[in-house]
Amino acid sequence: MEYLKGDVQIPDLRVNIGPLSLANPVMTASGTFGYAREFESLLDLGRLGAIIVKGISLHPRSGNPPPRIIETASGMLNAIGLQNVGVDRFIVEKIPYLGTLGVPIIVNILGDSLDEYRHITEKLSACEVVAAIEINISCPNVKKGGVAFGADPAMAAAVTRTVRETTSVPVIVKLSPNVTDVTVIAKAVEEAGATAVSLINTLIGMAIDLKRRRPALANVCGGLSGPAIKPVALRMVYQVAQAVSIPVIGIGGIATAEDALEFMLAGATAVQIGTANFVNPRACEEVIDGIGDYVLQEKLASVREMIGALQVG
User: Fold this and answer.
1) Residue 255 phi, psi (nearest 5)
2) Is 214 strand, coil or helix?
3) Opening angle at CA 235, ends 229 and 239, nearest 5
4) Residues classed as catalytic
5) Neighbours of 178 (CB within 10 A)
6) Which 3 state secondary structure label does DSSP give 10?
7) Would you tell me which CATH number, out of the four given (3.30.465.10, 3.20.20.70, 3.40.50.300, 1.10.3210.10), belongs to the domain 15-60+81-202+227-306?
8) Angstrom distance (rounded) from CA 63 to CA 297
9) Rounded Cα–Cα distance for residues 262 and 254 (Å)
10) pTM
11) What CA–CA distance (Å, rounded) separates 124 from 37?
């Protein structure tokens, strides 16, 4: 731990994602924090370990028709449809503000082809504000009949390699849980040059409106997130951390410092907070404070001591 004047103890919460240094392991999850300005009156954005913005595509997307978000037992289903302003407007309208926040800005990107991923990366790589790129590989490859990039190791590796060869900033690959063996995908993107992996993205689910006898979401199916998926996410993070040598970023149902620390014990270097932001806009700050309290209470030299320290057997 570090010390300030007056012997006030300040916990060492610093972690590294490859060459990217974070003041603490708490990030915002893409799609749950807008472009950050939406939360500026609700918490101190400068305290965050990193901000991951809403997924950005090559061209603007209007998303799916409503209803496209509903609550479920211990979670949420969403079928927003990756609505965003597109990379050109993002650079002009959002990047200047993000550059004033003093924390690493990570841009989540999505595309329907390798060319789209390449073009988005080229544009973002020209922006000094962009500290890293997170690749959403849950998107469908239109040239392969709509199969999600993240469902096939070869396609996941191809998009990772494309982005890696196009930029010098760290590349994080966000893994889908909707696969048979997530470790196979994780190893494929590691070999293709990923700096780190983040997981899990949402699980595919649905809900039914009994009165109308129709799907509750206009899109029929959506992505399940929130506390309901935490046990699945923890299991996958643990498995992937055992399978790769690059940093793992945990996502899925994290709402408290205890949740975050469980993910770190399972092997995560950092975590992303998503659905909890909708329930408690100050969730990220509270998790940071709680992790700091734990480090001091346990007399740890650094929060890094927690990474992968789970005792099994």
Assistant:
1) -130, -15
2) strand
3) 140
4) 139
5) 16
6) strand
7) 3.20.20.70
8) 46
9) 9
10) 0.96
11) 19
